[in-house]
Structures are given as C-alpha cells and as structure tokens.
Amino acid sequence: MRNSKRKRRARKAAFDGMYNRCIKRMIDCIISGTALLILWPFYLVISVLIVLEDGFPIFYRADRGGYQGRPFKICKFRSMVKNADKIGGGTTAFNDPRITKIGNVLRKTKLDEIPQLVQVFLGKMSLIGPRPELLQYVKRYKGAERDILKVRPGITDYSSIEFINLDEIVGGENADEMYEKYVLKRKNKLRVKYAHTVSFATDVYILFRTLGAVFHKASGFIVKKNIDKQI
Predict the structure, then answer these.
(1) Residue at 231 is within a domain
(2) Considering the domain boundaries, does residue 191 fall inside one?
(3) pTM summary value
(4) For 60-88, how does the pLDDT look when each residue is reduced to its tens digit (9 = 90+)?
C-alpha cells in the first residue's frame, strides 16, 4: 500500500523534475531552431498557396490555455475559410465545409501545425506536451487536471496520436457536443498522464509514435486521392 502511494507521488512530481524545468526547454530550442532553418522554404510555398486560394490572413490564431495557466495565441497555417470560428463551432466536423482545398491537404499531412515551431522556439509551447485546449474547457479543469498546466503545451502528445482522426470521431453534425461528450474527458486523462510521466524517454516515445501516425494518415490520404482520380 505504501509503495503504491510512493509511486503515485513520484509520477505526480515528474513535472517538477529537472527535465521538465530545464533540459526539455534546451532540447526544444535546439530542435525547433534547426527545423526552422530547414523548413523556411516550405513556409513560403504554403503561404503563397493559401493566399492564392483564399487570400489573407495566412495564419490562424486563437486563444488557448498555456503554461502555468497563462493564455496564449496558438498559431497554425489557416486551413479554413475566413472567420470560420464565427461561421461554425470550435470543433472541426467530418468533411467540414469550412475547410479549403489547400487546408484539407495541410490538415491531412499535419503541415498546418508547423508554424508552432516558432512558438516552441519562443517558449510558448514545447515539441512534446499536452495539446493546448480552448479556454472554455481549461477553465473547467479540476483536481489532477490542473497538473496539465504545469507542463508547456505541445505540438503533439498521447491524445494527438489517439485522436489523429478527430473529425471522423466527432462526425459531421453537432461536433462540439460530440467532442465534449465523448472526447474531452479522455483527452484530459491523456494530458494528465503526460504531466505525471514527463521525461526524455516519454518524449522520444511520443515523437516516434507521432511520426508513424502522421505518415500513416498522410499516405492514406495520398492513396485515396490517387484512387479518386482513377475512378
């Protein structure tokens, strides 16, 4: 009984460890800085494609819950029509009509997320960490869920892998309601799991799982596109 309590305390204290407080930040700076130097031509190409199809703005920015409870504006390549958040809900539905053609490609390949590398470099986010949530949901955190805010929000985490096809899970109607009813609670559990087990080994595991999941999703999208062209 005592050993199990000690293990639980050890897990809960992971976010207070040296790795989360210092080492993780150094790794983030090195990797994100290097990636930005390599990927900047992709930023230019994607930006031009977005403007050609739907004009400005290039980026989508919205408030999310951040590190230590401080809100910040997440940044993504815009994949929906202008003012999409005023047209529909905060959760993207399956085959959502608000998604643009280039936006559909960006979402399926997860390239819409790469502007967040700048936020990682600046310290607003981390490469690996709980996906930042809408403020309306963050305000509802209670108990262990508050530990989510003790690690920097990330580009990917356990929930990103499990819900990589979130739009298909929430369906085409009442997406916000479906998200709150069937997804949010599970996502929060996975976010808490990360906060309680944050370590270098955890981050490496999530990174490779994410790369595999993204490759599988992107390749499936490309194959489907080719089949559709042949029909």
Answers:
(1) no
(2) yes
(3) 0.86
(4) 999 999 999 999 999 999 999 988 877 77
